[in-house]
Specification:
about 300 residues; Rossmann fold; Alpha-Beta Plaits; 2 domains; four-stranded antiparallel sheet; 14 strands; nucleotide-binding
Amino acid sequence: MAPILRITDLKKTYSGGFEALKGVTLDIEDGEILALLGPNGAGKTTLISTVCGITVPTSGSVTVGGHDIVTDYRAARNLIGLVPQEINLEPFESVINTVRLTRGLFGKKRDDAVIERILRRLSLWDKKDSRIKELSGGMKRRVLIAKALSHEPRVLFLDEPTAGVDVELRKDMWEIVADLKAEGVTIILTTHYIEEAEAISDRVGVINGGQLLLLEEKAHLMARMGQKQLTIELREPLSALPPQLSGQDLTLSEDGLTLVYTYDTKKERTGITTLLSELAAAGVVLRDISTRQSSLEEIFVGLVKEGAA
């Protein structure tokens, strides 16, 4: 089956010569959640704007459901829902009319059952007659999602959907995204929140300087690139590492009470058994041992630094 969204060697250069996209190639499968991570100015919003027809590409191609975004724009755009970063809503209009209007703009017949289902899913039904200006910031973001879903798109772009909302509402939004995925909607999410990508995405893309640095399944990415650290708490402080431990990848804390051993999860042997034997032979008495996996955030920061080098 062909991917629902296919981006091939997409480039965008603005009139001043700035290259916002430098040959991005990306296939997105039907029904998946892709998180695009990147710092400000990385090209995330330009990529979304280009796919949605807001920005005209300099070169390359994009198809949505097999429809080219330039030569078959209307058919392609009808398959896309977009939730922008900015909250730009008519303040004196009611919630339900705001969503109905957007459905009409896409040429869809009025269907109050569809609108009710969307508003109930987003916990907006009891606010359907409220004017936009009466809503909280979080509720306004829900209205943006309702508008994007009003014409029943197959692909939904969420550009920083939880920016500026509290932690509780952010988790509510994650549940909404999971429900949409269960219904078969393909979701492309841009975010600054690493935990958002870690919590809900199937794949993670890292974009910086207009280039896609990496695209991989989230679990595979962490298994391939993540490192584990063994933290060893000591019963008595060390002033320095014993000479027989100099060959180990060990870091001693300033207070001398903690050793940190970093090892590669991909290797057949971790070296932990040998390390513990050497510690015992050196007369080092342990108080406690714990391990931790590198987070997606640490991996992301490392990739962005590499891409900028």
